[in-house]
Amino acid sequence: MKRFSSSLPARGALEFLQGSDGMASLLPAAQRMARLQQDCMVLLPDIFQACAVLQCSQEQLMLGVPNAALATRLKQQLPKLQAGLQQRGWQIDTVRIRIAPLRPTLAETHSEPPRVIPPAALEMMSALHDSLENSARNDALKAALLRLVRRRD
User: How far apart are CA 98 and CA 75, in angstroms?
Assistant: First the structure.
């Protein structure tokens, strides 16, 4: 349930929604969905952090899950979730589950910077390359070591 996040910083998203009349009308619904998402996170075990509130209308909550296995496990938690939400003031009579691969957040789409191999490790790989005897058995390993050392130089 921890997937509910904005690609904008919290303050920037709030200012963006408040910036125009059309967007400002979305703010109460967005805040309501965020509160519901937070309550679901509190009520469900950590294994369900990949789940997300997709929709809440007419006393029906729709949760998105990334796969069928998680959906099956979530079905077992529905009575507890529904009761907990009702205790927190949500008028939820039905909870439905939809298998829907969730889109990654902006933070998840950024790749990590390339890992740097320390110079000492590169020297050791070069020395290993030079120390291996030339044979058909070692050719693939020697070629891989050579590519790695040359790429990092």
Answer: 11
pLDDT tens-digit map of 16-38: 666 666 677 777 888 888 899 99
Render pLDDT for 128-141 as a digit per residue (tens, 0 to 9): 999 999 999 999 99
153: which 2 tokens? Answer: 């130089």
DSSP SS3 for 20: coil
Tell me the CATH architecture of domain 10-109. 2-Layer Sandwich (3.30)
Domains of the chain, residue spans: 10-109, 119-152
Cα(58)–Cα(62) distance, integer angstroms = 11
Distance CA 142, CA 126 (A): 9
| Alpha carbon distances (Å) from 61 to 21, 55, 104 | 28, 6, 22
